[in-house]
Amino acid sequence: MILPYSLKLLCLCLASFFLLHAALGSVVWLAAPAAINLAETMRARVAARFILFVRALPMMLAGAVVLGVAVPSYIWLEPHTSGESVGPACFVAALLGLATWCISIARVVCLTVRSRQYMRQCERIGGEISITAAALPTRLLDLDTPLIALAGVFRPKVLVSRSVIDALSAEQLDAALRHEHAHRVSRDNLKRLLLRLAPDIFPFVLNLSNMERAWARFSEWAADDEATGGDVRLSLSLAEALLRVARLGNAVPASVLLTPLLAGDLASRVNRLLQKNAVMPAPVGRSGALSGVITVAAVFAFTVMQWPIVLRVTHEILERLVG
Asked: What is the number of other CB atoms lying within 10 angstroms of the CB of residue 100?
């Protein structure tokens, strides 16, 4: 197939991204159980960040290599001609790369649109309320169905139904709002959106949903820990709030960008809150993170020093891919 210079570059970018992402994603998929087990030895917030980083690593590395190495090597070393041939294997890989991104972008767009529609409905049936202890915008909804959740990405606010307000005591409501405030400070809704943007390893075939579920579990644990701060009274109040809201039922709509109070495994969260030593786990060392930073810096420095060679080798690989 003969393509213009710019379309050949686009085709190479998509094909390279798909192949790199599939290879890196397969490695992460195989290592996911070990990564989750390792995360369980960390603080909940550190564990959530670690799992998020590992889940996004294939996308970040593949994108960095394509934009930072493949594109410059092509522009520098590929002669400008009117027509460029592309082999069938490269074209198929490019189509798969395009499908991978289209699925991810469509997923995020649908989630965003549904969330905006839901927020408009909430604005019509509720109004802002001021709760000093919450320290965050809160909207009271005139609903009999139970709901307490953090909604929104860039200017998130708590949605709470009147049935939840009536069911919880002042201390329990304060603990629940502290939990949602912890999600707001950590920007967990934005992270949830980024997880939806991260492509699957293969479209419709292989994904990293176990990593995403682990991130959701650790982020809920982290919000519980940060809401209670190791205080036994607050831990008990939050556990009671979880149980009372659970008895009311779960009215969180599907396919809407919310972080509800009842997210995650309720039993494990209540057990952690009732165990004083589980609320504030022992701090973890930073040697692993420091080693990772040093390794990345060393690889970056080596790449910069060998930049011309790296570009030439990359260009040869791309030529083989095209053929």
From this structure: 23
Q: How far apart are CA 67 and CA 61, in angstroms?
A: 10
Question: Residues near 164 by Cβ (< 8 Å), separated by ≥ 6?
Answer: 146, 147, 148, 173, 176, 245, 248
Partnered with residue 3 across adjacent β-strands are 84
pTM of the model: 0.81
Place of tokens 């030439």: 312
pLDDT digits (tens, 9 = 90+) for 106-123: 989 988 888 888 888 877
In this prediction, residue 281 carries a pLDDT of 45
What's the confidence (pLDDT) of residue 105?
A: 93
- Strands, DSSP E only, in the chain? 2-3, 84-85, 126-129, 138-141, 148-151, 157-161, 258-260
3-state secondary structure of 275: coil
Task: Give dist(CA 157, CA 301) in Å, integer.
Answer: 43
> In terms of residues, how long is the chain?
323
